[in-house]
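Q: Can someone sanity-check these two? First one:
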Amino acid sequence: MIAENLQNAIASGASLRVRYFGGSTPGRERDIQPISVKDGKVRARCLLSDEIKTFIIEKIELVVDGEPSQLASILPQPIVTFQTVDVLTFFKTAALQALGWAVQREGENISLHRTLKNGKMIQKPDVSLRYEAIAYDLVFDGEQVRETNHRERSRPWIVSAKKQATKTYGDFGKAQTSFLEFAKSLSPLGPSHNT
C-alpha cells in the first residue's frame, strides 16, 4: 500500500506525511515529496530539512491522524541517548539500582558500585563513565611527581569496567551506550536484567 501511495504522490507532485523508522531520528514524523521509487527505496525531498534523501520503503508508514504507529511495535526500538550526564543520571538511576548497583555521581562522572551484605558500598567501582578533557604525562623530577605535556583529549569520554578493556569516545552518546551495556552485562544480579 505504501508503494502505491508513493507512486500516486510522484504522479501528482503531492507530499505525504510519513513516519520513517530509519536514519538518525527513527519514528519521527516528516513530510516528504517523493521523486522516484527503485529497488525498495524512494528518493524524496524531505520537507523538514529541505534535502533530497533516500528512504527504505519498508521503514516508512503513512501517518493517519488518530491511529498509532504499526511499525513502532514491530521494528527494533532505537537506543535512546541523553544529552548530559545529569539527564542520563536522572532517567537511568532507578533502572541501574534495579540491576543491583549503587549509583554514585560526581561532576561529569557516574560510577556503579557493588554493595556488601550489610548494604555498605564498595568504594572501587565496577563500571564508570567519566569525562577527562585534558590528558597529561606524569614525570618524576627526582623530588616529586609532576604533570607535564598537558593536551586536549579528542576522546574525552572514558568507560571503564571491571575485567574489561577501557574504552574512550569522542561522542557522549556512544560512551553512554557502552556504559549501560556494561551495567547490564556485569549486573550484581546477573546479566539477564534489563536497563
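And here is the second, same format, sequence then C-alpha cells:
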Amino acid sequence: MLTASPLKYLTLVAFGLTLAACSSPVDPDSPEGKRQAAFKQILNHSEPMVGMLTGRLSFDGERFAEHAAQLQALSDAPWEYFPSPGNSNQPNAARPKIWSDPEGFSAAVDAYKATVEHLLAVTVEGVDSADQVRGPMTEVQRACKSCHDAYRR
C-alpha cells in the first residue's frame, strides 16, 4: 500500500488552498454572475430530463413536461448578459468569436431556442413515454453542444 509522506500531503493541501485563494469569485450582480446563474437554472432543468432519458432517474412524463416548460421559460435569460468586449474584467469562458461573429452567435442562440420550443410543443399534450421526447431532447443537447463548441472555451 502506498502512503504519502506528511510533507507531500501538506504541500498538496497548501497548493490547493493557494489555487482556491487565487480564483476571484464572480459578483452575482455583474453580467457574468447573472449569466452564470441563468445557465445554472437551465442546467437544473435539463439534467433531470437527460437523467430520465438515460435511465439514471425513473421516467416521469409529467415531471419531464414541467422541466421542459421551465427550460423554455429560461431560454431567453442568459443572452443579454454577455458583455461587450472590454466591458468586464471578470473571467468568463466566452471565446472572442462571440463578438467577431455576432450573426453566427445569434443564429446559434436562435437554434437553441427553436429546439427548446419544439421540445415544449411535444410535451404540451402530455408525455407518455421517453421515446416521445428522446429525439427533441437530443436536438436541444446538440444545439447546446454546437454553441459551446463554437463560442465557449
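A (reply): Looked at the second one. The longest helix spans residues 31-54. The mean pLDDT is 85.
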